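Thread: quick sanity check before group meeting

JM: Hey all, I'm pulling together slides for Thursday and realized we never actually wrote out the predicted structure for the chain we discussed last week. Dropping the sequence here so it's in one place. If anyone has concerns about the input, flag it before I start.
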Amino acid sequence: MWRQSVRQLAFMSPLDLYALSQRSSFSSYTQYDDACALARSYQRCSPAEKLKYEERVEAINDEMERTCQAEAQLLMRENDEQHPCTKNLAFGRE
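JM (edit): ok, ran it. Output follows.
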């Protein structure tokens, strides 16, 4: 269950990525410390800049999803290898 929570927290929105990029580009964090100010600043971005963030976030989230799926498959295989009799019971065979 905690893996699902971590996975949900790891996914980004375009605004999240924008906030990270703005905060990292200034030596003083106070300018972009206010979440509402960041949201307003993002809304004023050009459509091309918003699209750039949307595409980058989509790529990041897709990679996160692939990683989570691969991890789930590895965990299932590991469980099957540790308990081979459970695989037979799952199909009604003993």
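AS: nice. Residues 1 and 74 are 17 Å apart (CA to CA). Helices lie at 2-10, 14-24, 35-43, 47-82, 84-90.
JM: adding both to the slides.
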